[in-house]
Amino acid sequence: MKNSRNIKKFLKIVFEKNKLIASIAFVIMLVISMLDLSIPQVTRLILDDAIINNKTNLLIKLVLLYAIISIFSALFTVILEYIYSKMKKRASIKLKIRLLKHLSKLSGEYYTNIKTGNMLSIIENDIFIVENFGAEILFSLIVDGLTACIALFFLVRMQSDLLLIVITLQVMLTFIQSKFTKVIAQKTEEVRKDSGNISNIVQEYVSNIMNVIISKSSFNFFKRYIKQEKGLINKCIKLDMIISSNISASMILSSLITICIYGYGGLKIIKGNMTIGELIAFQQYTGMLIGPCINIIRSNTRIQQSLVSINRIFSILDEPIIINQDNNSSIIKEDFSGNITFDNVVFSYDEDRILDNINIEFEKGKLTALVGTSGCGKSTIVNLLFRLWDIDEGKIMIDNIDIKDYNLKSLRKNISIVTQDLLLFDDSILNNLTIGNKNISKKFVKDVCNRVDLYDFINGLPNGFDTIIGEKGVKLSGGQKQRVAIARAIISNSSIIVFDEATSALDNISQKKITENISDLLKNKTVIVIAHRLSTIKNADKIYVIDKGRVIESGNHEELILNESTYYSLVNEQKQELALS
Ligand SMILES: Nc1ncnc2c1ncn2[C@@H]1O[C@H](COP(=O)(O)OP(=O)(O)OP(=O)(O)O)[C@@H](O)[C@H]1O
Ligand SMILES: [Mg+2]
């Protein structure tokens, strides 16, 4: 049920916008099959008419006809391959894009539990496997079926008793192959799963190599890796052996069929019940019966293998989009002012309540800070505003409109979050700052860089703003990365900017300087700052102190100090630490 539904969906993707080219391929395939089917007739005429009756002219004509048929058949095959190749690539790129796009629409919960290696294995390996499934295999099945039927028709007309022997052997062949097919599909799935697990381990190792070395965990990695690889080797060998046994068994039975044709057919010729031409034509038609039948059976193996991959691909594509993208599609207006209200918000990631009746206001043009011990739920508040997760109870509103009623894309476009770990692209520093947006003036970018103390550094790079950074290029220090992140958020010009521990890698003096420099650019925005270092948020218009998912105090610095409660003790603790150090 699930299989056929997924195949249908997959074929829809393959044939979408490819109907004309697919029809051409189908016609070409039919023509090739007809050309091939005519060859035994020409052979029979060459042997039984031209040669036996010494007709040289006829012989030349027939040989020429044979050559023309073969050339056209070969030519059409090349054209067919071209069409298939084009269709295959188009479909697989389409699938990849669909997968990657769908991934961007899923929820924080999905992203938290995602297994990168497995995902990569689906995007690379499974899509590669299903590339060969689709028009090619489908059309081959139809044309093979047709070819086999026509060949059978000729065979019945020629020698039905000889055909009976051939068919008996053929049935045996089919039976054995179908048994093998099931086992192969099952083993392939096991191998595919294990490969995914290995990819996960390798991906974890490679993408964190520096941390792996620092945490001295490479031994642990190799132990896990080798154990998995050993298991996989055994499974792969078993699978290869099953596949080759399958091929050998069918080869033996095929030879048996040839032996029967020459043995029994030869006897019939000796007795005068058959001509040599008929024998050769019979053998050729037998090939045209058995070949397609084997193809159909082999296709079944490939279909089973592809099915595993198709199901894996759709396991992602069918992942429901929990975060509704477009509730009633009221796109955020240009004059979006950005007053945010958390109204009795309740939220849990799993079972445990993380936010318990939170009431917070973030006002436009004001700097609001969230403080509290690690794990109290500060970043969670930001995740909810960005709708990585949807809340369980209560309401989050911007300008008195529930955020669920905004178009998700516009909502996110209007919020910039600066976190500790910045995503750097393997691209120029300019594109890293503008995220590829060409409409941003370089003057503005330079100004922002100046304010966050990046301009001199960038100017000193070999190609200035065009220097490649990221994976292949210049490496940045922790502090420089944070400056890029801050600059990027300001350049994006979102109405709401969140700094979540955005200056933790900067020293006090740099941080103060940058804060002062950018303050006028943030004047009309809703600014949310999360910081452990309380000196960062001293000047905030409002500070919320969060504890165990609840707001326990709020006010500005002076008010909270006068309160002599949690904030007051946090400030004192930090002062003491500073004094001690
Ligand atoms: N993706 C997630 N899935 C499940 N639980 C999570 C997830 N992210 C965070 N949590 C849990 O939610 C709680 C709040 O996490 P959150 O990241 O909001 O804390 P925080 O206040 O930002 O802490 P920190 O100051 O250390 O950054 C923590 O107990 C954490 O274990
Ligand atoms: Mg946090």
Could you give a short description of this structure?
The protein has 581 residues and is of the alpha/beta class. It has helices at residues 2-15, 19-51, 56-103, 108-113, 116-131, 135-158, 160-207, 209-214, 218-271, 276-317, 378-385, 408-413, 429-434, 442-451, 455-459, 478-492, 508-518, 557-563, 566-580, and strands spanning 340-348, 353-362, 367-371, 393-398, 401-402, 415-418, 427-428, 468-469, 496-500, 526-530, 542-547, 550-555.
- Number of DSSP helices? 19
What would you say the CATH architecture of the largest domain is? Up-down Bundle
Strand content is 5-15%
Radius of gyration: 35 Å
Shape: elongated
Distance between the termini: 67 Å
Mean pLDDT: 89
Number of beta strands? 12
| Tally of distinct domains | 2
CATH class of the largest domain: Mainly Alpha
Helix content: 55-70%
Show unreliable segments. none
> Which fold name is given in CATH as the topology of the largest domain?
ABC transporter transmembrane region fold
* Main sheet overview: 6 strands, mixed
Bound molecules: adenosine-5'-triphosphate, magnesium ion
Give the name of the CATH superfamily of the largest domain. ABC transporter type 1, transmembrane domain
Sheet with the most strands: spatial strand order: 6-9-10-3-11-12
Which class best fits the helix and strand makeup?
A: alpha/beta
